[in-house]
Amino acid sequence: MKAYIVVIGLLIVIFGAIGGYLYQKFSALAAMDFSPPPVTIAASIAQGEIWDERLNAVGTVQSVRGVELTSETSGEITRILFGSGDAVKANQLLVVLNDEVEQASRRNQTAALELAEILFERDRTLIEQKSIPQTQYDRSRADLERAKAQLAETEARLANKQIEAPFSGTMGIARVDIGDYISPGTLIATLQDHSELEIDFTVPARYAPRLEAGLSVAVKVDAFPDQVFDAEVMAVDSKIDPSTRNILLRARLAEPGGLLPGMFASLEVDLGLRIDVVTIPETAMTYALQGNTVYVIEDTEDGGQTAVARVVQAGQVRDGKVAVLSGLEAGEQVVSVGQNKLFRGVKVLIDESVRL
What we know:
Elements: H1 2-31, E1 39-45, E2 47-63, E3 66-70, E4 75-80, E5 87-88, E6 93-97, H2 100-128, H3 134-160, E7 162-164, E8 169-171, E9 181-182, E10 187-192, E11 197-204, E12 216-221, E13 224-241, E14 246-253, E15 264-281, E16 292-299, E17 305-318, E18 321-326, E19 333-337, E20 348-350
Parallel strand pairs: 1-20
Antiparallel strand pairs: 1-19, 2-11, 2-15, 3-10, 4-6, 4-9, 5-8, 6-7, 8-10, 11-14, 12-13, 12-15, 13-14, 15-18, 16-17, 17-18
Helix pairs in contact: 2-3
């Protein structure tokens, strides 16, 4: 009996030691902090600024004077008096078509006109002497007018056989050669006056009350990425396009500056108004289908900091900054670098060496 008591006592001591050991271990584990470490990010302060209100648009550069040269009549080309890329003057002869038939007709009709004039002068003398009836005089006068009209018609056909430059400019690539037979509407070459350029572009109809001639326009093209060209709105269309609900504007470039017709251009129209905006670095804005988001840094109860996602309304982007129209106040601190590492409830450490 005494042996059983000793055994039970030893078991109690052993299991008690094991329990105490396990309790100590689990207490130590419970005291440990398993929360993820803070994420290092860069931060910026939302700034209050005053911006000129601008309207973004796109358009195509075009010449004030630019045409595709075609023929009004058909015929074989006998002479080409320009080269591709040549500078030409207004009324300079460019292309001549075969006009042998018209030249022959002109000689024939010139002779007929001379005869009609002689007969008319004779009949006018005789009618004064009352030697011929009035009907004969009227017939000779009508024959004279007919001969003049026929010669004028031939002269017009002859003029159509010679194609001249309607204004001074630069010729494009010739699309025809000597000996080609062309028909009305056949493209011969383009002619562009590069001294005056303009841009047609459209903007949403809701801006119509603020649009007027004289507004300043900043123009950028891919060919000159570091250069901004000045332009001015010359005219605003008198109606809204019912299919797109846009309105058409035309702006004139102050200086051509090497631009060519057909270049794609991005434009900023200065509407002449100044607005208060809250700005943050463009890198601080996260764009998504669900809404544009910024991560705002907030203090936590334990004295740390966390980043909370907030949906905002984004406005224009200018000089690396984006305007926030609603959802953010000036002075709030936002994450500008490192958003891809953030998640709900994460603590953050701000890297003071990075400031945007």
